[in-house]
Amino acid sequence: MSGRTGRVKALLLTGGLGTRLHSLTATVPMYLAPIAGRPLLDVWLDCLTEAGISEGRISTHALAETVRSYIEHANAQRHIHLYASTELPLLGSAAAFTANADLADDADQVVVISADHFSDIDLRPLIAFHRQHSDPLTMVLFRAPVPHTCGIAEMDGAGRIVSFVEKPECPVSDLTNAGLYVINATAYREIASMGVFDLGLEVLPQFVGRMRGWVWGGCYLNIGTEDGLERAQHEAAMLLPGQSRVGNGTPRPAVFLDRDGTLIEHVHYLSDPAMVSLLPGAALALKRLRRAGFTTVLVTNQSAIGRGMLAVNRLDEIHTELNRQLALQGATIDGIYYCPDAPKTDDRTVVESPDRKPGPGMLLRAAAELNLDLGASWMVGDVISDVLAGLNAGCKSILVQTGPTSQAEAETVAGLAPIAPDLAVSVDLILDNRRARQ
């Protein structure tokens, strides 16, 4: 046993174009795709942080400026410092080592991650395993249902990989390369000096007999297809730490948020994703709430659907754009609920249907599905129907003045709930209230 320790850095390979997910990746890099309301890259940064890794480099190509913006916000909020390495032209998985050869200069090991995967993996036992054997490289393996489409490894009794073939016609096992490695700095430099293109075809076969396999039995999914992304989103709801779900643990407090005029600029009957614009400070407000342990849920009346002015798929595009803008600032929403019903009157104080605010239906449904404590929760919105929806659900409410609130509505609300100039001040009130009650 080697008993190695030392400093660990990370290289996240994110240079792919995501062409099989073009409907999403035309505007959002694949590795920033929303997974349980969070950018996929957030999941990997959580893994690195939990493993005590404080420095990483992201090798990127598609929509590089979007990634740089994400990195800027991540560095401001996390204890890991990230750098971008833009691939121009697009490099292969091995060529990215050459382009980032200096990453190993003051490291003992480098964790290399293909970040177009979703997993609940814990890097800590992986790194500990690597440090206890004498080989320079550890490859994470999982069992694939269709082995001939993957890189397949064969191990001996000591866990050493004795053969590796990329997409073999006759696989000798179902142990599949996960695209995640722990590599000693000397071996990392060796790979960087090869000057080759593809890791699976040109590099890993040269490490046969001097690398170990570490089999992960948990979730490991490639999100490069619509089916893969859908499966990852489903699995994430069940696997990610801190995700609330029915019957799982103690109910959590939530902050329910109206959309237009509260989280984004108010646009009358918003129907174009290009018109989505976050209000100043909104993303930071969401991050503060999540750090404080609140689940964040969007609840929005969408009468344009009931009026025949907006299709549901167009609404989905609007919310995808909203999630994209939040992801760029490292923020997220845990759930989105909408009511398509058109109103029968202009009176925002009348409950015309259970779900349409001021009805509490959306909040009650979210509480049941996300395991929320309504008595410890808040509703924040810019019109009186938002305030009443929260009160009708048993929450506390706050009116924000960033939307088209009338003076008459504000005077009515003043006797029911506090009024704040914006979402940021609302969060101050919510957190101050909790501190006062503790």
Explain the overall architecture.
With 438 residues, the chain is an alpha/beta fold. The protein folds into two domains: 8-222, Spore Coat Polysaccharide Biosynthesis Protein SpsA, Chain A, CATH 3.90.550.10; 247-437, 3-Layer(aba) Sandwich (Rossmann fold). It is built from 15 helices and 19 strands. The strands form five sheets. A seven-stranded mixed beta sheet has the order 5-4-1-6-11-8-12. Helix 9 (282-291) packs parallel to helix 15. The chain starts with 7 loop residues before the first strand and ends with a helix.
- Biggest pleated-sheet summary: 7 strands, mixed
Average pLDDT score:
86
Please tally the β strands and state the result.
19
Q: Rounded to an integer, what's the Rg over CA atoms?
A: 24 Å
Q: What is the count of DSSP helices, taking H or I runs of 4+ residues?
A: 15
Uncertain segments are 17-26, 242-248
Reading side by side through the largest sheet, how are the strands ordered?
Answer: 5-4-1-6-11-8-12
Could you name the CATH topology of the largest domain? Answer: Spore Coat Polysaccharide Biosynthesis Protein SpsA, Chain A
List keywords for this structure.
Rossmann fold; 2 domains; 15 helices; alpha/beta; 33% helix; six-stranded parallel β-sheet; 438 residues; Spore Coat Polysaccharide Biosynthesis Protein SpsA, Chain A; seven-stranded mixed β-sheet
